[in-house]
Amino acid sequence: MTKLSQLDIDQALSKIMHPEITYSLVDLGMLENVIYRQDKVSLTLKLPFPQVPVKDFLIQSIKETLAGLDETIQVKIDIEQMGQKERDTFIKMAKKGWKL
């Protein structure tokens, strides 16, 4: 396995699509503070509401995507709630890209 870079991690995460909206988690502003150091990735998953039904699915998607790059990567995901401005942007995009 070749050594991964921050760019490799960022590119992989940018391909994770929201299961109910036709945008990626990155496009929706749901992933922040992505840091890759010494085979460890830490990031913040920002949710629009506290009890998002797809939260566990999103976490699993992130972990599986990163494991696909290197199964030894350790992943730490912090969960935060979006601020009002972030949530407004998310909702606008969600309405536009909702899968019905």
Write the layout of secondary structure elements.
Layout (H helix, E strand, L loop, with lengths): L5 H8 L17 E7 L2 E8 L7 H15 L4 E8 L2 H14 L3
Parallel strand pairs: 2-3
Antiparallel strand pairs: 1-2
Instruction: Provide the succession of SSEs.
Output: HEEHEH
Task: Using the alpha-carbon principal axes, give the shape.
Answer: elongated
Instruction: Give me the CATH architecture, please.
Output: 2-Layer Sandwich
In the CATH hierarchy, the third-tier topology is known as: GMP Synthetase, Chain A, domain 3
Number of strands: 3
Order of strands, widest sheet: 1-2-3
Percentage of helical residues? 25-40%
CATH superfamily: Fe-S cluster assembly (FSCA)
Poorly predicted ranges: none
Please indicate the percent range of residues in DSSP E strands (runs of 2 or more): 15-25%
Over all CA atoms, what is the radius of gyration?
14 Å
**Helical stretch tally:** 3
